[in-house]
Amino acid sequence: MAAGAKESLRVTKAQSAALLEEAESKAKEITREARKxxxxxxxxxxxxxxxxxxYAAEIRMMADKRAEAIADKAYESLRLHDHYADTVQAYKNTxxxxxxxxAVPASHLLDELADEFGFHKAGERLKLARQRxxxxxxxxxxxxxxxxxxxxxxxxxxxxxxxxxxxxxSILSRVKPSNxxxxxQEIKDVFSLVNHNGNVFxxxxxxxxxxxxxxxxxxxxxxxxxxxxxxREEQRAIREQVREEEKARKELERALKQARRDEExxxxxxxxARLEFEHATIEEKGVYEARLNELSAKLADAExxxxxxxSMAQQTKCGHVYIISNPxxxxxxxxxIGLTRRLEPMDRVRELGNASVPFGFDVHAMIYSEDAxxxxxxxxxxxxxxxxxxxxxxxxFFRVGIHAIKAALDEMGLQARWTLTAEAREYKETLTLENAxxxxxxxxxxxxxxxxxxxxxxxxxxxxxxxxxxxxxxEVEALP
Length: 480
Description:
Layout: H1 2-96, H2 109-116, H3 119-138, E1 143-144, H4 151-172, H5 180-197, E2 205-206, H6 208-278, H7 282-314, E3 319-325, H8 327-330, E4 334-340, H9 345-352, E5 362-369, H10 372-382, E6 397-399, H11 402-411, H12 425-439, H13 441-461, E7 469-470, E8 476-477
Antiparallel strand pairs: 1-2, 3-4, 3-5, 4-6, 7-8
Helix pairs in contact: 1-5, 2-6, 3-6, 4-5, 5-6, 6-7, 12-13
């Protein structure tokens, strides 16, 4: 019985130990689960908090963008308002005409520019403005659009540039100082209209800086035009003066011929009266003496008129001294320094470039002088060592640099419009054609056929021109 109780106690202890172990195991499992659940909840709380922070930041960012969009829209609306206002005004100007709205007084900024700058300086400033325009076009600074880089962008930019430049070049070709206000507004209106129409090409537009560059071109073009107008007026006055002097010269020649004829007739009459006086009676001598005194007075008067006519004729020396060259015929540093009293001095230059030389002459300077023979002689003496023909001094060609001739005239205080570089258009075109024919036999054959056709036409309709250059007084001048 005792043994049964012991066994029962052992079993009970074993069961208790098993239950205790199971309870401890379950307690550990419950603790792990609780910790795991707490960690998961903590993670979720942290994620939720992070999401909330991100959401708040997103809301704030969206609010900022919305505020910026509203501000940009307001600014864009303001810009569009100005843009459309300019466009409307441009259309109005184009339809209604410019009338007197943009008139600028004739005496304005350009008068000051014409006084302040010499012709060559105004030309240089225009060249700089043109160069600036070309640089802006070549560097892509003249226009822009919102297309990404590619052919569409290039096409859109070229389109607005061509439209703008075409109209501006048309305005520049008809520059008028008296019309400058209207023409400046025309250029600005073209700018507004082109930029408005460029909206269909993703906002293709001309930059304001490019507009300023073209307006700068216009300003200097007007300045030069003003100087040209002034020069034309001066030339008109010179032609009028030459015309009057030519008229006076002819009248003086007639007066001189009449005075000499009167002097000769009175001299013969006086000589005859003296002979008759010597053979007259005492009663007749009183009559002849009065006649002699009368004829002597008339002769003295005729001699005075003759001297005065000669003196006045000697004062008619005005004319033009010209500096011309012909690189194709004589080389680059050979210049002719001559004079003409023609009312149209270019007639003389064209006459010199007749059939005796293969190319026409280029005019480097045409200087008006009240004593043209003295000016011409002074220049000839200055460059005598450089004369091409050392035997015949009438050949007025000199091997000297154009800058040396200009310096000599500057030292004399003479002002002239200079062209320092010879155009030599036909000569340069001939060189280009010769080089092209050298490389292209077909071009050479075509040219020969054309020349043969022209020669046949000339034989049928024209006679050969005389191989001579007619001098001013009708003499023949042989070239050096």
